[in-house]
Amino acid sequence: MSDKLLSLDKLSIGCVAPPGGSVANKTGAWRSMRPVYKHENCIGCRACELVCPEGCVFGNAKEKHFDFDPDYCKGCGMCAAECPVDDIEMVMEEK
Amino acid sequence: MAEKQEILEGAMAVAHAVARCRPEVIAAYPITPQTHISEELSQIVADGELDAEFVKVESEFGAASVILGASATGVRTYTATSSQGLLLMSEVLWNIAGMRLPVVLACANRSISAPLSIWCDHQDAEAIRDCGIIQFYAEDNQEACDQHLIAYKVAEDRRVLLPVMVNLDGFLLTHVFEPTILPDQQLADRYLPPYEAVLKLDPANPATFGAFTEPDKCMEGRWMVHDACMRSLPVIEEASAEFEKVFGRPSGGLLEEYKSRDAETILIAKGSLCGTIKDVVDEMREEGTKVGLLRIKTYRPWPTEAVLKAVSGAKQIAVIERGASFGAGGVMTPEVKETLYDAGMQTPVSGFCVQLGGREVPPDGIREIVDRVASGEKQTAYEYFRLKTEILPELVPGA
Amino acid sequence: MLKEIRIHGRGGQGSVTAAEVLAKAAFKEGTISQAFPAFGSERMGAPVRAFCRLSDKAIRTRAVIEEPDYLIVQDPTLFGQVDIFGGLKDGGVAIVNTEKPDEINVPQGAVLKPVAGTRIAMDVIGRPIPNMVMVGAFAGLTGLVSLEALQEAVKERFGGKVGDLNAEAVEKAYRAAEESK
Description:
A two-stranded antiparallel ribbon of chain A has the order 1-4. Chain A has a two-stranded antiparallel sheet with strand order 2-3. Chain A has helices at 21-24, 47-51, 78-82; strands spanning 33-37, 57-60, 65-68, 88-92. In chain A, strand 2 (57-60) and strand 3 form a beta hairpin. Chain A is α+β, with helices and mostly antiparallel strands. Chain A has a domain at 36-95: 2-Layer Sandwich (Alpha-Beta Plaits), CATH 3.30.70.20. Chain A is built from three helices and four strands. Chain B has two domains: 5-247, Thiamin diphosphate (ThDP)-binding fold, Pyr/PP domains (Rossmann fold, 3-Layer(aba) Sandwich), CATH 3.40.50; 255-390, Rossmann fold, CATH 3.40.50. Chain B has twelve helices and 15 strands. Chain B has helices spanning 10-19, 35-46, 60-72, 83-98, 123-127, 141-156, 185-191, 215-247, 273-286, 304-311, 332-342, 363-374, and strands at residues 5-9, 25-28, 53-56, 77-81, 104-109, 134-137, 164-169, 177-181, 255-258, 265-269, 291-296, 298-300, 316-321, 349-353, 383-384. A seven-stranded mixed beta sheet of chain B has the order 3-2-4-5-7-6-12, with helices on both faces. In chain B, strands 9-11-10-13-14-15 form a six-stranded mixed beta sheet, sandwiched between helices. Chain C has one domain: Pyruvate-ferredoxin Oxidoreductase, domain 3. Chain C is built from five helices and six strands. Chain C has helices at residues 15-28, 117-124, 131-142, 147-158, 160-180; strands at 2-10, 32-37, 47-55, 70-73, 93-97, 111-115. A six-stranded mixed beta sheet of chain C has the order 2-3-1-4-5-6, covered by helices on one side. Chains B and C meet through strand 1, strand 8 and helix 9 of B and helix 1 and strand 2 of C.
């Protein structure tokens, strides 16, 4: 795709948008609650990673270690709700 | 040049004309009276005569969606439908127009339920009038075939990049055998070089088609569809002129003026009904009535300038429709009135719905309309012509 | 010269094909032609109609033929159920597949031409599909289409052995009709 045809500031024919729009939009600022990954009881089930609607949980199942990307986490709390071993806690965001 | 007339069924002729445009992806779902078009195309692909993907889908929504996706990857595409099928496609068709994808489709015009009817009127195509699809209407099967080639030419022109729908009256064209020339493959290839997309879906360079726009940009995004429609007017004329140059027969264009130049009464209509109207015009001309026909071949975009020029000498105009806008009036009638009003003209315009759901329109009906408007009868509302009030029930039950 | 033909039959008897073949054959000899079915949802056995126009000028109308010059009736059992003769022009000819012409109530001004259509079809083709036989009889009686053009159109339409057998049936009906004139 030619960069000249597409930009984020101007419309294009067919309203075709270049990639990167979602990456530029740092939704982490929307958060009022923040997950805290405690790293105490993790069994590496990957539930937190799989349920995250933003795809911003990452980690390693073998090492039983997961965390979230604060740039994009909206604080929805699904990871905490689904964690079978209560290893994620939602706390008030202090800005 | 290997072109000669053959007696062909309309739908078959259209299928073979489409094949000669070399679409690479075809998706369609059967619906009467369109089915013969997609059936024959499926056969042509299965026989190896056309190198295309024929995608069998579960519905017209699926057909339109497949065509949208395929067109976005930069290939020439085709689908055909009718009636409820077109309506089931409609959500996708608005997207196709907004994404500026040069899809070509045919609509074998058929009434919309309820009551259930399989016969012809124009309410299906008119229901998606405003979505940004260019609409051609054929009078006969030759024109239906030729308009498909012109449709691709116009759709893929970079000044346009819009879908084009060729309307052919269900049964009245699709199921009639008549002399038709199938476009010669070499001439078709000369007229229609392979399609090259400006922007296309490509996994190596991802992009979003028809992306989200906030209120500060959306109107401009939609306006561009209107702008492209308007830009297509001269392109349609150019593409039609080039068609005549390549194939040696005139076809396409915005409209046809039939004995209307000096006419006092001008009838305006579209589609196959114009054949019957022309016969009536000839008869009445011989009797000394100055009547003519303006046949709309390109209904969207509405060819304002050309219509105005064609009707400027008329004393009265009758718009003869196979459609209606329930709760208001006609569909094409108000457009004719707007055209005249904007030009400061006061020519009386009467509108007649002569048929919904396939009832025969006998020549004497057309004659009656001409006589009535020529006698100066003033119409106060769009008329459902020869409505059989005797078969209507009590319209307010229990009143 | 505009000649209008209305074909009556039952779903499955090939009435639309008869109209199509007639149009194709006439067109081979320079006659402008048009053929179409009575549009609807046909089923096997239901009464159906098909239409054919032959002209020396372009045919613009697509109206159903209400006042035919000729009728082709593929099935005599239709007479009780359908208004076969309705609108037939004065002096118009009804070509009817029947061996009991006396049982048909022919209105004044109409001419009945009986053809043993099913018998000829059974003898030659081996199946009770009389459509091509009736078309052959029409050609023989009217001279509007030549035997050669009709046989060519039949062979093109069906191809192979079916085409050859139907072309043979067409000839048999054509000759018989010519003699009966």
